[in-house]
Amino acid sequence: MNFNLHDSLDAKAQRLLNALEIGTVLPIHRHCNTAETYILLRGKIRVMFYNEIGAETESFLLDPLNGNYGVHVPIGQWHTLEVLEQGSVVFEVKDGPYIPFQPEDILY
């Protein structure tokens, strides 16, 4: 569930809180028009980067209790996340306007 902190989907900065629960499914995807930054406020998640054939290339365990707060996802980077703790909340920032996923931006 998202709580948008920006005024509209056309805003130049898309800032939102994203509440995530175990079992949340986010397809491996990319953003071709913007980079993205995740700052984990509570809980625990793993963010994974992939190459264009779907092989995992990097993994980042975000856990504020261990000093691992965030990750920057470069523009065009294939990525997804896995929620490891109930009640996880991410502060997410990317350039606007909001552009929904296009079929070519979902790996599978």
UniProtKB/TrEMBL annotation:
Coiled-coil boundaries: none
Name of the protein this chain belongs to: Cupin fold metalloprotein, WbuC family
Cupin fold metalloprotein WbuC cupin domain span: 1-61
A family per Pfam: DUF6016
Stored InterPro entries: Cupin_WbuC, RmlC-like_jellyroll, RmlC_Cupin_sf, WbuC_cupin
